Amino acid sequence: MLHHLKHYLGYNEFRPGQQEVVEALLQGKDVLALLPTGMGKSLCYQLTGKMMQRTVLIISPLLSLMQDQVEQMKKMGIKRVIALNSFLTRMEKQQALQQLSQYEFIFTSPEMLQQGDVKERLTQLNIGLITIDEAHCISQWGYDFRPDYLRLGKWLKSQKNIPILALSATATYEVMDDIKKVLHMTSPFVYLHNMDRKELHFSRKWFNTTDEKVRWIKEHVMQTMGPGIIYTPSRRKTEEIARLLQDVHIQAAAYHAGLESHDRQLIQAQFIANELEWIVATSAFGMGVHKPNIRQVIHETMSPSLAHYMQEAGRAARDGQDAVATLLCAPGDDEIIRFLALDDLPTKNMVTDFYAGRQLELSETQLRVLTYWYSEWSYDEAIQKLKELITQKMTAIRATQDVLYTDECMRVLLMSHFGQSKQVEELCCSLCSDAVDNLIKVRKWMPLPQQMKLNWQERLDKLLN
């Protein structure tokens, strides 16, 4: 195994879990693997594909993540890789489908996989492995409900004797059961890596008002070291905090889904290249961002679920060095969390009107969910499903409140939510040790390139001589 790892991918040793997953896949087993962010999940399907000498299909949730993974593989020397997604023009798509057998690794989205010509072409290939990335999206109880992921089950059922690899960083046992059921996994090998990372420390701070939180963020960022990410639920708040930091000469940018795609790509590239020290973002930022030296993740408001929170906090400390995830709290946060958790769910009236064919103003997620329900279930079944979803969301909200108000160890609570135990005894969280906040007190940031210190007019003058 080590010989093949070195030969095909250039690595000398496996990270925890990688070898076990690859060996199970080579034996033809279905595999469900929970590996923390930054633990090299992609190596599992890359090495398996190389050793099988057969095509690997990777179903990925985000176009930007898909493109990033393709670019990363090309940099590694894996050239026969393609992203089959909506970025392609009609002509490019047809050409790609005609040449699909030439590729070792094919990335696509669950939505693209529903298209007849794509499904037909894939059945003609010698596929040796089907990988479902970010597999928590499959779950009806998961925190990123995607109906087209649920439709995968029907297609996968027709793909006989092809092992399935489901990958995720965070999932509860309930979500894992849902993944196995929807994907029709047969006695899968399950690998659960311990989520407790000794280099990631947790801190919680209470304030009287949201304005106090923002003032604290400004002072804290001025005094401590980055790079870092500040998560906030509001697009308006991302812009506000980013401007505050820019006013005190911190290289920061706002990132949210309301920005144009090329703007988001530019901001992400600048952050990775150390041209930006801080990103102030909604939950739209982070998936697929390969930046190992993130020292801080600050949540201006708690995420709507602990799965969300751990996914975002886990983007720090991928280099194995100490980092701190800081949670800011204030009265009224409970209502914000409740709104975030339930906002995109359709209401009972929406379900009734949709099934009756009446015109409605719906969010993109509400429309996706209702369209799927209408295609699969009767009205009564949809109402029952809505009740179940609300119950699950409320359970997730109560779990976040436990972290907000606990007097016990944050790490113990977080790990127990995912059915795991605390491993680290020292500097686990600010509730157990005041020393956690001392880990990041000294501001150490490399000087930015000289051109980044100029304003846009000066930069243009310099470029145009």
Automatic annotation (TrEMBL):
Claim: Cytoplasm is one of the keywords in the record: no
PROSITE patterns assigned: HELICASE_ATP_BIND_1 (PS51192), HELICASE_CTER (PS51194)
Alphabetized Gene3D superfamilies for the sequence: P-loop containing nucleotide triphosphate hydrolases
Signal peptide as annotated in the record: none
GO cellular component, one term: bacterial nucleoid
GO biological process terms on file: DNA recombination; DNA repair
Residue ranges of every copy of the Helicase C-terminal domain listed in the record: 216-371
Keywords, ordered alphabetically: ATP-binding, Helicase, Hydrolase, Nucleotide-binding
UniProt domain Helicase ATP-binding: residue ranges: 22-189
Source superkingdom: Bacteria
A Pfam family the protein falls into: DEAD
Molecular-function annotations in GO: 3'-5' DNA helicase activity; ATP binding; four-way junction helicase activity; hydrolase activity; nucleic acid binding
NCBIfam families the UniProt entry points to: recQ_fam
Annotated protein name in UniProt: ATP-dependent DNA helicase
Organism: Lysinibacillus alkalisoli
